[in-house]
Design brief:
Blueprint lengths: L4 H16 L9 E4 L1 H4 L1 H10 L6 E5 L8 E5 L6 E5 L5 E5 L14 E3 L2 E3 L6 E3 L4 E3 L18 E2 L1 E4 L2 E4 L10 H13 L7 E10 L3 H6 L7 H4 L14 E5 L2 E7 L20 E7 L3 E5 L4 E10 L2 E10 L6 H31 L7 E4 L4 H14 L6
Antiparallel strand pairs: 1-20, 2-12, 3-4, 3-6, 4-5, 5-10, 7-8, 8-9, 11-12, 13-19, 14-15, 15-16, 16-17, 17-18, 18-19
Bound molecules: FE2/S2 (inorganic) cluster and fe (ii) ion (FE2).
FE2/S2 (inorganic) cluster binds next to loops.
């Protein structure tokens, strides 16, 4: 295992924390107005900007390996069809017929050469081109070339499929967008991983509350006192501002043993859980031997879905390996349940109207950095 310079620096920082008892601190605490979670005008603006103009992870490449494979994605509110065309390129389209707007593809995933709209059977190919119109005589001078499915920007990077849910007026430079995280994401070989489990949890909480559960580790030894707490150092995370993304490195308790080893034998991956925030709503949560990809998407004010893919390096072959991954899956489900039960209670508590602000502590750095990036995007200062 080779660490990047960034990872070696993170280990040095944590070993320093172990010596001094300190932890990562921002300059000051931050007050976040509670209307940021409850105001419906703000909610509309968040959807319009954060969930329409930025790339969102919609799948893993193993779900679209071969030409003709496709998947549909609806959680953003925009019906999306993602295909791999005959040349092997990933394409995304609004899953909306150009005749009179019917949903073209209903299945969650599959393999096809063409897609036929269920309403009147207009037919489209994998590149969205309109190929067939039954009884075409009824549509004199129909310009088929301009009646293809409307394309959305789509990208395949680091084994993940990213889509911007609205038509782009300008080209999106996805590589510049992901550049601050590229070295780390590239080192994970997620493109050769497989999806062990994929699941969606509808929750009764603002999407921001679900997000915040992954942006600090202050809560681990309280909210997860019987689960995650003992695995990690208590509240000794390192946060790297990789604007607008955040690398949140959570050291495992066993990292203190590295103090007695030479630096060239240190291994980052086996000593950290890393919660990478990929603006605006994506996480790559890197465990010692597998990865969770989360996307958190609002479905209404005070409601969101939490979508998760558990990526493992290869298909489990033995019963023992299956049991191992299943045990991991069960633990993480339990931990997320603990987070979401608290989030739903926070949401219910808004009705009491007692908090004007929430207080983001100096070591709750992911909350502070994430809030700044969200404010920048809503104010038009951050674009992709
Ligand atoms: S709405 Fe699709 S063919 Fe008519
Ligand atoms: Fe948590």
């Amino acid at each position: 295992m080779t660490n990047s310079a960034e990872e070696t620096a993170i280990i040095e920082t944590v070993l320093g924390f172990c010596e001094t008892g300190e932890t990562h601190m921002e300059d000051d605490l931050m007050l976040n107005p509670v209307i940021h979670y409850t105001d419906t005008d703000r909610y509309d603006r968040e959807v319009e900007v954060l969930f329409r103009k930025f790339p969102i992870i919609v799948g893993h490449v193993s779900q679209l390996r071969a030409p003709g494979e496709y998947l549909t994605h609806d959680d953003t509110g925009v019906p999306i069809l993602v295909t791999r065309n005959r040349s092997g390129v990933v394409k995304a389209f609004a899953n909306v017929c150009r005749h009179r707007g019917a949903r073209v593809v209903n299945e969650p995933c599959g393999k096809a050469a063409t897609f036929s709209c269920p309403y009147h059977s207009w037919t489209y190919d994998l590149d969205g081109n309109l190929r067939g119109v039954p009884q075409e005589v009824g549509f004199p001078d129909l310009d088929k070339a301009s009646r293809g499915l409307v394309e959305l920007p789509a990208f395949e990077r680091h084994g993940l499929i990213w889509v911007r849910p609205t038509v782009s007026e300008t080209d999106i430079d996805i590589d510049s967008w992901l550049a601050p995280m590229a070295e780390q994401l590239g080192s994970l070989s997620m493109d050769t991983h497989v999806v062990y489990r994929e699941w969606t949890i509808p929750t009764e909480m603002s999407w921001r509350l679900a997000l915040e559960g992954f942006q600090e580790s202050y809560h681990f030894c309280s909210a997860h006192k019987d689960t995650a707490c003992s695995t990690y150092l208590d509240n000794q995370s390192v946060f790297l501002d990789q604007y607008p993304h955040i690398r949140h490195a959570v050291p495992l308790a066993r990292i203190s043993t590295l103090r007695d080893q030479s630096a060239d034998s240190w291994d980052y991956r086996t000593n950290f859980m890393t919660q990478n925030y990929l603006f605006p709503c994506n996480f790559a949560q890197v465990m010692t031997d597998h990865v969770y990809i989360h996307t958190i998407i609002p479905t209404g004010p005070g409601r969101c879905v939490f979508k998760c893919m558990m990526l493992i390096p290869e298909e489990p072959v033995s019963e023992k390996t299956k049991r191992y991954w299943e045990a991991n899956f069960n633990v993480v489900r339990t931990v997320f349940d603990e987070d979401f039960a608290i989030g739903a209670n926070i949401q219910r508590g808004f009705a009491a109207g007692v908090n004007e602000h929430f207080v983001f502590g100096r070591f709750e750095a992911g909350l502070q950095l994430g809030q700044k990036a969200i404010e920048d995007a809503l104010a038009g200062r951050l674009t992709v």
